User: Fold these one by one.
Assistant:
Number 1:
Amino acid sequence: MFHISSRLIRVIASSLLILFASLSYAEPTETILTETWPPYILSQDEPKGSAAKWLDLLFEHQKTTPNWQYMPYDVSFYYVSKGQRNLGFPFFKTSERASQVLFSDPVFYVTSKMYYNRQYLNADSAKIAFEQKQKMGKVAGYSYGATLDKLLENAIEFGTEKQALTALFNHEIYILPMTEGVMNYHLTNDFPLRKELVKSLKGIEDTSSLHVIAANNSAGKKLVNDINQTIKILADAGINDLQTNKTNIPVAIDVAQLITSEGYPLITGQTEKQGENIDYYALPRGSKVIVIQWSDKMTQASKSDRIYKNMMDLSKVVVLNGPHVGKELFVRNMHIELL
């Protein structure tokens, strides 16, 4: 018969006690329903968006591990309102929603605006289209804040922001509401060549808060209370980076390549615009540069159509490749071709 020594039994018992103790001290998890809403909530295969990271920080303070589950926002709201899930994020607060679920204190703020495509409309015609509610679009299941929601009851619905933006570019709709940060994200990442076509109607916007929603039951009430306490603790400590409606986007840059010109087969760059202490560099044709300072002849109106001075004026560039990469040089405008 196989015999187990008393020493082995003690080792096994000790190991089991350590295992059970570690399991008993494991951080609790909490499922949060959400959907892609860049740059605040990114897709599951991307790094987390800014709002998701902030909520992770709130739960980290509570020693809880969030489990993000993606589904359409209207489905998320339905599950939370029926008590089938405890939490959803992020949601605008409206009186209708507040009658069905619990809302946390504001987690962050965004500004939504009304946009039009200036390829087809100017500011005046876009304002008329807005006032007459002509071909207005929106994303199904979304809120744009209480002020704008009232104006969008009969708007044409689309499944995603990209679909709605495509309709705006195709002139299928005239007016499209969107949160400023979301619009900037899609224009920069999905439609960079059409970025300058989209303009917002002046004076028509809504700044609203985004919240965690919770089931209206005892578990939901406890979760909202814990979240609110954590928001206050972090705010009192000065940790409230996301609670802002400011949206930062990179300023557009002018990327160009250097080309030769008739009568000027060699491209030269110089270290100073004028003076006696100037060094000159030969630059290979096709070199890429960023124009950091256009000459006055390029940026200001002229009373003459004579182009020689415009061609020979010097603009300041940063060289991106080739033997002089990184240098700041002045190059004649006739050698600069925007990409």
Number 2:
Amino acid sequence: LICNATWDTVTCWPPAPAGTLVHMPCPGQLRGIRYDTSKNATKMCYENGTWARKADYNGNCRPLVDSHTAESEEMRQWGRHLENAKLLNNVGHAVSLFCLVIAFMNCLCYRNIRCTRNNIHWNLVATFILRNICWFIMQEVVNVETVLDNSWHCRVAVTLFNYFHVTNFFWMFVEGLYLHMMVAHAFGTERIKCWMYAVIGWCVPIPIILSWVIVMSLLQDERCWVDSTTGQNSHYDFIYHGPVIIVLLVNFVILGKIVRILVLKLRAHPNSLDTTHYSIKAVKATVVLLPLLGITYMLFFIHPSGRGTSKIFFRYFNSFLQSFQGCFVSVIYCFSNTEVRT
């Protein structure tokens, strides 16, 4: 007895002797899913010369996970991480903006605490407020349609955001400069007038951004002056990234000198404190100064490549620190300020 050839809508089974288990390669593709044809499906030919009602495709026939499928899944996972990082950015900027506005209003209401030091804090808080507002405007204005059209309001939004971004760093530099003068030259802080600090913080960034605008208008006047594929800015942005990097490096030097001077002063007046306490105080001073002087941004000049764990961690960590920095500044220099609290 034999089982006659048969077609089960998937595989053509050839004639086979009764009482045998027939093996046939798995289908190459079924319902749009590719399978490994090196594996076999099976179907039983019974002793009475009849086929089993169903062939066994589940045992060995497994869908192929090809490179395209794996890449698509990786892209979906990366997209989810980008969405989560964007949500974290939104929450961080919103919380920071709320805290910054309260801090700013405190500076306006309590005129009795007005001094050069607190006026510098006030201006730094103002730059954070304006930058955060521009960041939210950017989320609404810069989209696929406006980027492709290279609309003027999109370019204006990008320009304003970059300007306030740079002023933010220059007021951080003013903070560092004033702190250094206060620590190193206790009686020389009033040599530089407030208007001089204002020129450094608000006016110096203007020619820097104007230079960038001119270069972008002449050499890359497209896509709202941002890269629509990656969301990152072009290499011409080093026109203002360069001064920002210089400011950060100078602040890093200032921070080192401030900590060194503080340690030396603590050692000169130990008041029965041991060396460990000196170190703790120096570390505390450093932690307080880090968000103020913007040294945290130094960590993000080298971006991890690819889409691995390090890149994902960088995205979240970067989003958290940069979006909540305004909140940190508000807490450290307003809400925990003894002059404001009293």
Number 3:
Amino acid sequence: MLVSVGTRVRLVHLRENGVVTELLHEEGMAKVRLDDGDEIPVFLEDLSRPDPTPSNKPPVKAKFVPGKQDKVETPPERPPIESQYLIIKSKGIQLAFDPLPEPDGQVRQYNIYLLNDTRSDYLFTFELQLDGRVVQRENHKIDRTSYVPVGQLHFDQLNDTPTAVVSCWRLTTSGTGPKMEKTLRIRPKQFFKRTKTAPLLNRKVHLFLVFEPDADQQPPKEEAEDLRDYTRKNYRPKPEWQDIRTRMPHEVLEMAEFIPEIDLHIEELRSDFKKLSNAEILRIQLFHFDQYMRKAIRLGVERVFIIHGIGKGKLRDSIASRLIQMPEVRSFRNEYHHRYGYGATEVIF
């Protein structure tokens, strides 16, 4: 089934009809206005034709019908990694600018790759800024001893003060490690001096080290301190024998007790859930969701998990609709997690 703005569709799980009002290409979703007037975002795989289909045939799934757009060159598929050597000593997370010479030998463009020659997997965010404006952004996962393309840089843009901002989170069995972030301000003179053979790519590139191996586990370097600073740091007043909780700042105590997940199953929120209608259940779940998000934003946490279960997907879609409208939310995803399966959405602020 082809979908465009104005197409009448049927929501497979809710068994309701509506009209597509907006295509959300990046999220793989579409906004649908239901016949009762509600407007919600829905994943494309949950849409089908409004006409009833025979029971022995599966419903036709929805497909994007992009409007008239300028022709954009599709990036080449990621080339297979054919390392000709064994990495004896890991360098860490690196950023490589791979020159693309033209037939006349001139280089007018560089492919940008993020390299990971460590033994850990990472989530990463990459931004390329020109004159302070973000022109390219990529969020993805990079496996151990692998590389991924993250963008392109034109030769003339070296004069536009290019800046690369890279954030990484190590993936562990218990979740993600602490956030690592580095900003690389690329100057032409420095750029052309950094010509090396890149690991994994096995060719000459302009190479920058972003994070050393296990950078998120290295203790911060201590700066030398004078006698006055040492005295202030180690001075201990007479102890006041009272509950430490009464002496902690309110926000610090809240942050220490904050749980980075909320379970929105109605049985976790109300004891009388069996007497409630579906509409009342959804209203209560969204009320608790809004309260939880306001607190998380106020405390400045990095990420949270919203446990909504699988079911028919109406709660999940309603949450996605709210997250899209929150400027404090950087990204969110409903992917498989070893702890929650597909029943939770991860929100990154």
Number 4:
Amino acid sequence: MVRVVRATQVEIESAVQALRDGELVAFPTETVYGLGANAQNPAAVVRIFEAKGRPPNHPVIVHLDSPRYLHRWVREVPEAATRLAESFWPGPLTMVMPRAASVHDVITGGQDTIAIRVPAHPMAQQLLTAFGGGIAAPSANRYGRLSPTRAEHVREELGEAARVILDGGECQIGLESTIVSFEGGGVRLLRPGSVTAAQLREVVGELVSGADSRSPRVPGGAPTHYAPTTPMTIVPAGEIDAQADAASAGARRVAVLAQRLPLRAHKYVTWINAGRRPESYGRDLYANLRTLDKAGCQRILVQAVPDGERWEAIRDRLLRAATSVAESDDGTSTLAVLP
């Protein structure tokens, strides 16, 4: 059971003052930790991009404490968005809608759309309510690297970039929010998350999955993302022990993220059994990869996760994090290097 922590009044007041001063504040959400700035202060938002090394054309998500402030940020709220908000806000769903005229380009990456979320984490709600406005916040890590799910991950990676780091304990979900956009009355799933396609369909009916050439750019949409610094390979589920043996030949140190214990001892292998439950696997994914990234190994091998919607968000993150995928065909394995 994940322990949820609430901030003291002094901590919230310090964070609110930092935001009003144009400084950055790291705070927990139910998905991952965010690196936040006053969304109405373009200079402050630019500091997020500088701290993360984030490309300037990548939009950021604006977090609100409730949908009551949507009119400040969104030009037009689609009817489907209203229904989704009623079902999933506060929660791990981000919706991309037409931006209001007052929204600065630094928030949207120069696009005509804005990404909005109402997080459910009590500490995020405390902060947003006390601040009384929108907080622009991508994940609190260096661009393209593993997202932080604990306050110490933020400290390790960003150091003093944030004036205040609110420690809300471990994130309950551990994977970034589901992202949807609205096109011609329809709904498009742009990033899978803990709100699944089946859950979305229950509310809006038909759903299109995946971006096309007309879809807005969204956070986490780059082909390579969420990655450890150690090269990472996804291997077929039934070959994880054999691949570990082969990769560790010649006393090479190898790390493994699997869904079970090893079938036999591997002398030069650091092995984490993440289990077979998608909820706990996803919650611990980034923390486990951080642990393996620090193990001094030459490569991380990840056992391919099962098919099915409950694993879809995890599969998406692993494929973006991997440098290669080992594919099995008639008992032989080949290494496909990803772009």
